Amino acid sequence: MEKLNLDGIFQIKEDLDKKILNSFITNVVVVNSHDILLTFSFYNKEKLLISLNHSSPFLGFVPTDFNAHTVLGQLNDNLRKYLKGSYIIAIDVLNNDRVLKFTLHKSNDFYEKETYYLVLELIPTISNLIFLDSKENIIFAKHYSDLTASRPIIQKMKYVPLTKNKELERGTFNYTKYNKDISKYVLDSINLKQKEKALPLYNHLKTKIKSLKRKIKVLENELEDAKKKLVYKEYGEALLTYKDDKEELEVLITTIPPYDKDLSVEENATSLFNKYKKYKRTIENDNREIDIANKEIEEYERLLSIFEYLSEEEILELSQKYLPKQTNKKSKQLPPSNSPYYVEYNHIRIGFGKNKEQNNVLTFKKANKEDIFIHVANFSASHVVIFSNNVNKDTLLVGLEIALLLSGKVDAELQVSKIKDIRKGQSTGQVLLNKYETYNLREVRDSTKKLLLTQKRF
Fold first, then answer.
1. In this model, does residue 329 exceed pLDDT 60?
2. CATH number of 198-322
3. In a 3-state reduction of DSSP, which class is residue 212?
4. So what's the pLDDT on residue 327?
5. Long-range contacts, 233-241 (Cβ 8 Å, 24+)
6. Does this chain's domain 6-173 share its CATH topology with 198-322?
7. Strands of 46-51's sheet in order across
8. DSSP string of 277-325?
9. Residue 181 and residue 38: Cα distance in Å, rounded?
């Protein structure tokens, strides 16, 4: 990787400004323990890869077809909570060092804009990702340090930028080579992921070969034993030949191990013939099974010999063919995305939607005709439904306050109606009110703000 110097970090900042400034971060994928992939709203030609690998941290743009599944964990949870959906206001280089500071705006649950900062310290051996609140206190960091450190990184503490022992060197920075190095890093990462995907199949084939060889060994031992038992046919024929010669018969009986003295000579002969047929069938079946097993081993060994040349599609196809089907444990079912929210107040459920689909489900599928409907007048905002036909002033006020909070307005005119007095508009979530009352609201009590934090999904 081309070593980052001061000119390099400013070239990266210039490229970031051109491509993603004033864009929303639409998706965050934690590729592994040190690589993070960001997708943007107004720039969809490339994705941004942030790599905090120990030896050579970097960030740069990669092709949009570089995809990965996110790794679940605390880093993923925090990044998606604070970074996904945020709007990039500014990108700055801190302290003339390999440190980039992203200024972000993000709406909270009350549709209020809040300011956050994402700091990327791209310093070899001490790289870090730190998220700050509007006062630049640390919300979370990828790597923390304790109070004994020269620069403590602890939650809720004020962020202190890195101090340099010497100025970062300037000089020519080969940005083209830097991007080629990133492309190679991505290609190596894809190849590694492909190997990781292929490993279960590779191990399965090797295990199958060992298992089949053990099976063949058992069958061969069984086959040798069955071949020895084919002599039972000769025993049966001899019994029938000498059944009338008592002296010869007595001598013959002593040479036949499975002879049963409680049965007649003819019955013993029949039993021996049946045993002969059984072992003959065993020989036929064992030979057939050994032949099948040898052919399977031959196929598996052939696949292993060309394994490194198989494409990702071939690996997937062979995995579906040979790997045992996984039986997934029943996971907890999440509510559908169009499921609205609700809070409980005075044992009455107050529901609300956060988008047009949730509004539509709440008002026209969940609510009853006598329930109370609340909406901000002449404004596209959340529907609020009080699930009761007997609402006192206090409960109605809470419903009005929730509608105002979710609208993002400081004060507003709100319309209150019965569900039976509204009808669907032409578009999803749109309503037309036949009969309603009007209320004006200019403030929301703290108790209602706290109540809204207890929201649940239907």
1. no
2. 1.10.287
3. helix
4. 52
5. 233/272, 233/273, 233/276, 235/272, 236/268, 236/269, 236/270, 236/271, 236/272, 236/273, 236/276, 237/269, 239/265, 239/268, 239/269, 239/272, 240/265, 240/266, 240/269
6. no
7. 25-30, 35-40, 46-51, 58-63
8. HHHHHHHHHHHHHHHHHHHHHHHHHHHHHTGGG--HHHHHHHHHHHSPP
9. 19
The domains of the chain are located at: 6-173, 198-322, 341-457
> pTM for the full model?
0.47
Cα distance between residue 341 and residue 393, in whole Å: 22
Angstrom CA distances, 172 to 8, 15, 92, 169, stand at: 8, 16, 21, 10
Angstrom distance (rounded) from CA 36 to CA 13: 18
Q: Tell me how far the alpha carbon of residue 411 is from its chain's centroid.
A: 41
Q: Please tell me the distance from the alpha carbon of residue 268 to that of residue 446, in angstroms, as a whole number.
A: 98
Torsion sign (Cα): 424, 425, 429, 434: negative
**pLDDT digit string, tens, across residues 1-25:** 677 888 889 999 999 999 999 999 9
Looking up tokens 């993002």 gives: 408
Domain 6-173, CATH class in plain words? mainly beta
Q: What is the pLDDT of residues 40-67, one digit of tens each?
A: 998 888 999 999 987 889 999 988 877 7
> What's the rounded Cα separation, in Å, for the pair 371 and 377?
19
**Nearest of 266, 278, 281 to residue 232 by alpha carbon:** 278
Cα 184 to Cα 355: distance, rounded to the nearest angstrom: 42
CA-atom Rg of the chain in angstroms: 38
Residue written as tokens 């002599």?
Answer: 231
6, 96 Cβ separation under 8 angstroms: yes
The predicted-structure confidence for 252-269, as pLDDT tens digits, reads as follows: 998 988 899 889 999 999
- The closest of 310, 351, 74, 345 to 199, measured between CA atoms, is 310
